[in-house]
Amino acid sequence: MIPWLEAYDPFPDVSQALCQDSDAPGLLAASADFCPERILEAYKSGIFPWFSEGQPILWWCTDPRMVLPTDKLVISRSLQKKISQVQKSMATDKRWQIRFDSDFETVIRNCAAPRKDESGTWITEDIIQNYVKLHEMGYAHSSELWFDGELMGGLYGLSIGKMFYGESMFTKISDASKIALVWMAHFLHENGVSLIDCQQQTPHLASLGGIIISREAFSLHLVETISQPPITNWTPAPLTQDPALRNSQA
Questions:
Q1: pLDDT lower than 70: segments of the chain
Q2: What does the alpha-carbon distance between residue 47 and residue 62 come to, in Å, rounded to a whole number?
Q3: How far is CA 28 from the centre of its chain?
């Protein structure tokens, strides 16, 4: 059993989330209310929403937790070559562009589109509307790869203090979302953010350098970071001397 939260009820301690050998490891609570203030309260404690259309709002805090160190991305040589091409174009013909926050709603709607071999999405219209509000409030941000004025791929997430919570990615061409991620990770590293929260463990994120830490370690990291001054200037910078690029592999 998990608790049902009425409006304004506080979240239970994350240690009360269902254990790893349960049917829903990490499930903490359910609620009917879903608003930007509730979402921010959740993320500050390492809790995130994840539910499907027609379900109550389900809140999770997984243990262990996958995170992506912003200075230790694993970048293949082929991806590094594409990044160099984008960087060169940004300085010359500008056909390729990396932008932050230029079309947040389109990014999240692309992330919500069903993937190949998937029948649905967890990014419901309720999720979209609330995260667009969080974007307008200055908490939600997107990293976008554009070519000739067309959005090719990107990602979005939440930023609180010196913590970034990655939410979802999409791509229309090979590696577009990875390129957007590399730029975002570089930007975050340069602005004092050391970890991107990935929430769920996936082989894809592990291949990019994602690591597993305990829920306790993650909670301690949040205590140290969410109260720090937030990033105020969300302008992507060139990847000159980016530490992530030194971790390239064949």
A1: 116-120, 240-250
A2: 8
A3: 20
Q: What is the reported pLDDT for 242?
A: 47
In the numeric block, which tokens belong to residue 124? 């419901």
CB contact set of 118 (below 8 Å; sequence gap of 6+)? none
Same domain, 87 and 180: yes
Count of positions (residues) in the chain? 250
* CB-based burial, 159-178: b 16+ in 10 Å, e otherwise: bbbbbbbbbbbbbeeebbbb
User: Which residues in 221-244 are b (16+ Cβ under 10 Å) and which e?
Assistant: bbeebbeeeebeebebeebeebbb
Task: State both tokens at 79.
Answer: 């991806």
Q: What is the dihedral of CA 50, 30, 140, 114, to 10 degrees?
A: 30
Give the full edge-to-edge strand order of the sheet including 4-5: 4-5, 27-31, 57-60, 48-49
pLDDT of residue 120: 57
The total of structural domains in the chain comes to 2
Order the strands of the 150-160 sheet from edge to edge.
Answer: 96-100, 140-147, 150-160, 163-171, 195-197, 65-69, 211-213
What CATH number is attached to the domain comprising 117?
Answer: 3.40.630.70
Residues 33 and 121 reside in one and the same domain = no
Query: Within a 10 A sphere around the Cβ of 245, how many other Cβ atoms?
Result: 17
List the one residue out of 140, 165, 156, 158 whose CA is nearest residue 221. Answer: 165
> Which element (helix H / strand E) includes 164?
strand 163-171
